[in-house]
Design a protein that fits this description.
- The complex is a heterodimer of chains A (about 675) and B (about 170).
- With about 675 residues, chain A is mostly beta strands.
- Helices cover about 10% and strands about 60% of the residues of chain A.
- Chain A has a single domain, classed as TonB-dependent receptor, beta-barrel domain (Maltoporin, Chain A, Beta Barrel), CATH 2.40.170.
- In chain A, a hairpin with a 5-residue loop joins strand 35 and strand 36.
- Chain A starts with a helix and ends with a strand.
- Chain B is α/β, with parallel strands linked by helices and about 170 residues long.
- The longest helix of chain B has 15 residues.
- An 8-stranded mixed beta sheet of chain B has the order 4-5-3-6-7-8-9-11. Chain B has a two-stranded antiparallel ribbon with strand order 2-10.
- Chain B is built from 7 helices and 11 strands.
- Chain B has a single domain, classed as Response regulator (Rossmann fold), CATH 3.40.50.
- The chains are: A mainly beta (about 675), B alpha/beta (about 170).
- Strand 1 of chain A pairs parallel with strand 1 of chain B.
Amino acid sequence: MNGKNRLIIQFLIVIVVSFIHSHYVSADSEELMSLSVEDLLNVEVISTAKKAKSLNDSPAAIFVITNEDIKRIGATSIPEALRLAPGLDVARISANSWAVTARGFNGRFANKLLVLIDGRSIYTRAFAGVYWENQDVMLEDVERIEVIRGPGATLWGANAVNGVINIITKHSSDTQGGLITAGGGTEEQGFGAFRYGGKISDDTSARAYVMGFNRDQNTKKTGGPAGDAWDKVQGGFRMDSQPSIDDTITLQGDIFQSHINQDTTLFQVSSPYRNRMDETVDSFGGNMLLRHQHTFSATSDSTLQIFYDYYERQSAFLKESRHTFDIDFQHRFDFLGWNDLVWGIGYRFSHDDSNISVTTKLLPSSRNDQLVSGFVQDEITLIDESLWLTLGSKFEHNDYSGFEIQPTARLLWIPHRHHRLWGAVSRAVRTPSRFEHDIVSLQFLEPPQATTTPPFFRPPVALVFEGQRNFEPEEVISYELGYRTTWIQNVSIDITAFFNTYNKLRSLELGTPVFNGRYIKQPYFLSNNLRAKTYGFEAATVWQMLDWWRWDMNYSLLKTDFNNEKAISELGASPQQQFSLRSVISLGNDIDLDVFFRYVDRNFAVSLNAGNEKDPIKEYVSLDIRMAWRPVAGIELSLVGQNLLASQHLEYTKETTLNAIAIERGVYGKITWQFGQ
Amino acid sequence: MIVWALLCISYHKSLYAKPIDKQSVLAALTLNLARFTTWPDSDNPVLNVCVIGNNVVQTSFSNLNVKTINGKKVQLLNRSRLRPLEHCQVIFFGDLKKNLAKRALIDIVGQDTLTIGEGIDFLKAGGMVALEQQRGKMQLNINLPVVQQTGLVVSSRILNLATIFEFPAGKE
């Protein structure tokens, strides 16, 4: 037996012994009742294995990332934190851009995932997706991130086709006192944050924060610096007030500015035809949100929410800005004692402006659009404490595709306290984006060439992408089946199988080439000619091996069948298999040791510039390690190593670039000081 | 590696030979407090213990396997959906948003229900008994005016073990 095999066998022995041991030492609950009240008040208590014992009661594929999880993997951005969730495909394109999706169709401009921060939708109508580099919160103030895979359109609306991500920050009364973080390293060159929370009155608490960072550039796949370094400064506040026992008011806002460096290639129809440049994209934005919650009774409440959001981006490709105003009202109440009814209405107004660049313009350059929506959902108790049926639908009218209906039916069965079974059938749509309707963009240019046959010269060929006003929404019908159990002590298992059929997916159709005397214009248009089926399953397992040692293991399998071979290069895909294993060790209250291993299967990136050729991405493995020590109360020192298994690796390639960027290994140190709580 | 395994287990034992899971202690304390409480309808042969909370909270109660308390048949009722609360003689409030706990406590004002939750905020919201973890042990806190507003009688043995608070009682 060689050393490696011996090591594996010994490791397995430890695991098995620990598994048996964790059962052997578990407290006998019945014996507890033999203790007197005095005895019970004298026993030492400990909170253990919460994650390994909890079962979610939602009839949906939900996964919750806690504040503790985010801290303990050393995440420095929202996408990095999302890597913890099964079934999500999070790929870092460069230091400053990500491709994030659930259940397939990934890309820089992925468009089937709805993301909210404290109820504010951060999806942009520009490309029906999320500018992840614009979105930040002070991660120490995040309470939890709910990741819901599968359609969530009934409650959240259009574009929740493949999933919803709900980022929820802490109530300001839970962030009292000061918090300072500072750190730096090889990739995370320097970062820091300051937050202070206090009480304004007996009923009102508030906090304010400011944060910033500077991230280093990576390396081009072909070698050499990638020029993707960036920096950002962000500040914000949250105030929560309870003017009466039944009313809660929240006011919050954020403002940010960032400088995003990128290597850009722009095409032109005259020499030199291809113009490669290092540019700095200026990005600025802010938001303000007001929410009023009124509680009528324990089973009835209402929420009125208003938000305003603004962002602008100035790049060589396009300068765009967008104002969004949104108002929503929601009311939940108990009906006849066996119906939990919730209904709501909403209105959103969006106004954008854009400037013509050398290659790209939006026609018209400015557009207003409105969205009016309503929804109703009823959770019906069929058998008390055991069987629930949820029926509901969203109805909305938008200026891009008109009237849409997005219904869902969900069943939850709890046959035993250790088992949950659920199933769902849903329809959702992805409404057209501003770019899909109105863009005209020179995406690629073939320089002129000499030919061997008359006329012995081929003029430049310009591939021009033209949006279509008659582009229709993409549709999905989704079937899901889920099972959760805590049948094995200190182990929770959550499995979801899904089958999705997509219709009217976006396709690119070549138009008739036109020679205008200088160059051949080859237009390509959008159509809805692609269809796809995706199916697979996701599994999330938590094992509290010992009271101070937990394992989290996720696996996802995704099969994608397109009706057309070229679809994969137009729509993007996700890795067929993903696996992650996380070890969480807490030695007393002072020392943490976390190891996070990931395997990501090979994949293809959408590559518009290269004339729709598939751009292969190799499978990769990644390892992150975090060590933390709290020498005195309120102070934590941590050291984090990211992507430790290779000096660099490719995760994805942006659709509109010729330069793939490999993500580098990084190490950083961090100090956190909490005071005045 | 074997040494590491033994170290792991010995470390495990040294930490957890004594400590007991907090949620189990909360459930045991709740049912024990019911032992030392007298309800006005003392003839009622059933004691409805309503439990609000997730599966971990529910399981902590069912695992105790308590059939009777003071000769009354114990009926554990999962009331995570906060309805109906009318027939509960005891309600344990597990993890619940503050505003919902407050509202549920207002909804049951006038009922003879022993309400047990976690943290002093629970007493401020109108709850009767708050269990709070202090230096690794559970501490018993009772808001006397709320108890006195009902027909419940809590034994002096329990009152002597508790820290007594006098937050004003809630109104319907």
